[in-house]
Amino acid sequence: MSVAFIGGSDPIRRLLSLVERVARTDSTLLITGESGTGKERIARMIHEKSPRGRYPFVPVNCGAIPDGLIESELFGHEKGAFTGAVSQRSGRFELAEGGTLFLDEIGELPLSLQVKLLRVLQEKVYERVGGSQPRKANVRILAATHRNLEQMVREDLFREDLFYRLSVIPVDIPPLRLRVTDISLLLDFFINRWIEEGRGDPIRFSPEALHRLCLYEWPGNIRELENLVERFLVLKGGETVELSDLPEKILGAAADGATASDGSGNRDTRDSGISGRPLDLADLLEGESIDMPAYFLRLERTMIEKALARFSGNKTRAAAFLGINRTTLIEKLKRLEGIPPDHA
């Protein structure tokens, strides 16, 4: 399994279940998600699990190729098609024959190329630049973007017909901030991989540091977390990463968003349906082991309280913020009501 999708959180379980289903089809997919969430990794996973898995997986970053070159990159060109075309050249569609063509940052594709891509999706044929011989496109297309294509359609920046052709089955990758219970597993993976490669000594994160990492928003997602681990493996090899060692942006951002105040310094839990003190990790420092299930249960309580306080008790908006549906949130509230605060 790809590192980006290690974990047992509800969002990841739902994503991996969807991957298993869509991999068996030949449908076009639109993979959405913030930068750093692992869109290419999920595309590779779908390809490898599909009947096309023994054929090539060819990635193309549409945003990294100049507008004047992207058509020949995708479709290839004939000799003499333009200045500098001194020989015939195969395009990415041809290189992906029988396999999967992954069009990353599809929102950056020029409108003129969107028309030609639409034709390939509809008719399964294309021509090389400078050529007139139709060529069959025997590929599965997976597209990805971090942009809001629906908004781009409304602004006439992206073709509506192409949008619907691409998004036959949407696959949305959750950001790291909505799967914080996976963070400790991801940390272990990155640290163990570093050690197995013989690149240094292991590190561990103190309970307070781990808690603060779980409160951080992670705008760079998995990529940002991996970079953070590598930094500490270099600087703190063989040691424990304490709360005070974390970068200021993590300490400041997490502190600002960790609690909502009612003006008296107490956590605002109005209309939450649950009660309990803020998550206090001092007790986790006692003894020789940590009760991980209890830790994450208390973390879940804290996150739900924070979300409900942020949206003034509105369960629908809080559930959307947490990446779960309203029914799941209500079920969690009922379950937490029966657990004493000191146990969760």
Can you put this structure into words, describing what you see?
- This protein has 14 helices and 9 strands.
- By secondary structure, it is an alpha/beta fold.
- It folds into 2 domains: 3-174, Rossmann fold (3-Layer(aba) Sandwich), CATH 3.40.50.300; 177-343, Orthogonal Bundle (Helicase, Ruva Protein, domain 3).
- Strands 2-3-6-1-7 form a 5-stranded parallel β-sheet. Strands 4-5 form a two-stranded antiparallel sheet. Strands 8-9 form a two-stranded parallel ribbon.
- Helix 13 packs across helix 14 (326-337).
- It is globular.
- The two termini are 31 Å apart.
- The model is unreliable at 257-280 (pLDDT under 50).
**Rg result:** 24 Å
Strand content: 5-15%
By CATH, the superfamily of the largest domain comes out as P-loop containing nucleotide triphosphate hydrolases
Average pLDDT confidence is 84
Q: Give the number of domains.
A: 2
**Topology order in helix (H) and strand (E) letters:** HEHEHHEHEEEHHEHEHHEHHHH
Under CATH, the topology of the largest domain can be stated as: Rossmann fold
Sheet with most strands: strand arrangement: 2-3-6-1-7
Calculate the terminal CA-CA distance, rounded to whole Å: 31 Å
Helix fraction by DSSP (H/I, runs of at least 4): 40-55%
Biggest sheet record: 5 strands, parallel
Number of helices: 14
* Structural shape: globular
